[in-house]
Amino acid sequence: MISLTEGSKVSCGICKRETNIKFTTERTGGTAYDLACQHRNGYCETCDMLVPDRSETIWEVTPRCPNCNPEEAEPEEEDEEPIAAAI
């Protein structure tokens, strides 16, 4: 297991950019890693890396590892209605 603390340099599991950890929090399901790139990641113990968090609430963390679960598709973006231009 890698040691991840505030300020650690990491690769974001969502945008893949090199960034650093702003802070960590213990949540239902494990530790959440909030990164300087504004993404929240979970941790895959099998692959020993940060991965996208698929949780629905800020109270949980549900790591979604693309290596361990490649069949699990990315969540689809909900179609949003375009915002009307202000007149």
Strand content: 25-35%
- Quaternary structure annotation: single chain
H/I helix tally: 0
**Radius of gyration over all CA atoms, rounded:** 15 Å
Q: Spans of 5+ residues with little confidence (pLDDT < 50)?
A: none
How would you characterize the overall build of this protein?
- The protein is globular, with a radius of gyration of 15 Å.
- A 5-stranded antiparallel sheet has the order 1-2-3-4-5, with no helix packed on it.
- Helix content is 0%, strand content 32%.
- The mean pLDDT is 85.
- By secondary structure, it is mostly beta strands.
- It contains no helices and 5 strands.
Please outline the helices and strands.
Layout: E1 9-11, E2 18-27, E3 30-35, E4 40-44, E5 49-52
Antiparallel strand pairs: 1-2, 2-3, 3-4, 4-5
What key phrases describe this protein's structure?
single chain; 87 residues; mainly beta; five-stranded antiparallel beta sheet
In short:
With 87 residues, this protein is mainly beta. It has no helices and five strands.
